[in-house]
């Protein structure tokens, strides 16, 4: 089969991955895959059933019962659309503990890779360029200072009616980055050959146009007039 076209985007929380991935997908006529949503959905399910974030029989049984699926950009647990219920401070605070577990990561590998067989794909997460799509056509690593990333996340949470301080969000963001970067399996790392952009002082538009310049040779014909 012809190899699928994949853009792999990684980076820590609030670096702008999903914003940039969506825009880029639209620009090149690709689908967008939010792999964080898959880990959030599993964490939401396991937390709701009080399955502790550790390997063992309870985890194995729960994963065997559970079906995570995608319909377009909506995430389902069984027949239930959980897309709007997985972006809460509660899920933010527990997801990384579950995402560090081998059985959880393995259970999502096929679903992630299968999305690239449907057509061109822009996928974002922590291990897109390193583990899930090591052969990706383009790899991107986004970063920004923890303070700026916390500010971005805090604004989104406040807009959704959550009452937290920016300091609380900063604390959570730093804690989650540390768990994601320190774990043994698929830790957050810049993939070899990735275009790396520090977005701290850049607007979304600036990041996008900078990336389009960097990617031009790899995307010949796919970008239209940028
Ligand atoms: O949007 P944000 O960057 O805050 O997080 P997310 O992309 O929704 O990911 C939530 C969590 O899922 C991360 O903190 C990781 O623990 C985990 N994750 C992962 O382990 N591998 C991925 N490819 C994507 C997410
Ligand atoms: O997916 P990730 O957690 O990396 O970030 P996101 O969900 O895309 O959230 C980033 C937030 O910061 C969004 O509200 C963007 O509008 C904003 N932002 C950005 O993504 N990039 C910039 N250069 C500036 C702001």
Description:
- With 226 residues, the protein is α/β, with parallel strands linked by helices.
- The protein is 47% helix and 15% strand.
- The chain has 9 helices and 8 strands.
- The strands form 2 sheets. The protein has a 5-stranded parallel β-sheet.
- A hairpin with a 2-residue loop joins strand 4 (74-77) and strand 5 (80-81).
- Helix 2 packs across helix 4 (89-99), helix 4 (89-99) packs parallel to helix 8 and helix 7 (146-159) crosses helix 8 (166-182).
- The mean pLDDT is 94.
- One cytidine-5'-diphosphate is lined by residues 13, 18, 35-36, 39-40, 95-96, 99, 125-127, 176, 180.
Largest sheet: 5 strands, parallel
Portion of residues within helices: 40-55%
Strand tally is 8
Shape: globular
Summed up:
The protein has 226 residues and is α/β, with parallel strands linked by helices. Helices cover 47% and strands 15% of the residues. It is built from 9 helices and 8 strands.
What attributes characterize this protein structure?
single chain, 226 residues, alpha/beta, 8 strands, globular
Write the layout of secondary structure elements.
Blueprint: E1 6-10, H1 17-28, E2 31-34, H2 35-48, H3 57-65, E3 68-71, E4 74-77, E5 80-81, H4 89-99, H5 102-114, E6 121-125, H6 128-132, E7 138-143, H7 146-159, H8 166-182, E8 195-198, H9 204-215
Parallel strand pairs: 1-6, 1-7, 2-6, 7-8
Antiparallel strand pairs: 3-4, 4-5
Bound molecules: cytidine-5'-diphosphate (CDP) (2 copies).
Organism: Aminirod propionatiphilus
EC number: 2.7.4.25
Protein name: (D)CMP kinase
